[in-house]
Amino acid sequence: MNGHLDGGFIPVATLDVLDARGRAVVQVDGVAVALFRVNGELHAVADACPHRAGPLSEGDLVGYVVHCPLHTWPFDIRTGQCPRHPGVQVRTYVVRVQGQHILVSASGRVHAP
Ligand code: FES
């Protein structure tokens, strides 16, 4: 499961890795990435808060906004943007599902504020 497929998308896990809340942490090119399933779609962000590296995978999720468990900074998991601190954002990744396989873009992306 380490080969690059389809324009930089890497198979990182199968759907059964998601826990009861639809979450998992996977490795993408050596970086921990948090997966969140919301309304049937998967979203992926770096699992390190840009403030002080809190594990966003363990944060409370309200709609599409995850709150860092350390100091509660909020991040939209669709865009990575922090509504409380304009200009601050966490890296997001594009996710695809093919059959039972979860694929994540190797390059990731950061949205401009
Ligand atoms: S480490 Fe995330 S808000 Fe401080």
TrEMBL record:
UniProtKB keywords: 2Fe-2S, Iron, Iron-sulfur, Metal-binding
Domain of life where this protein originates: Bacteria
Domain named Rieske: residues: 9-104
Positions of transmembrane segments: none
SUPFAM superfamilies, A to Z: ISP domain
Pfam families, per database record: Rieske (PF00355)
Nucleotide-binding as UniProt keyword: no
One GO molecular-function entry: 2 iron, 2 sulfur cluster binding
Name listed for the protein in its UniProt record: Iron-sulfur cluster-binding protein, Rieske family
Native organism: Myxococcus xanthus (strain DK1622)
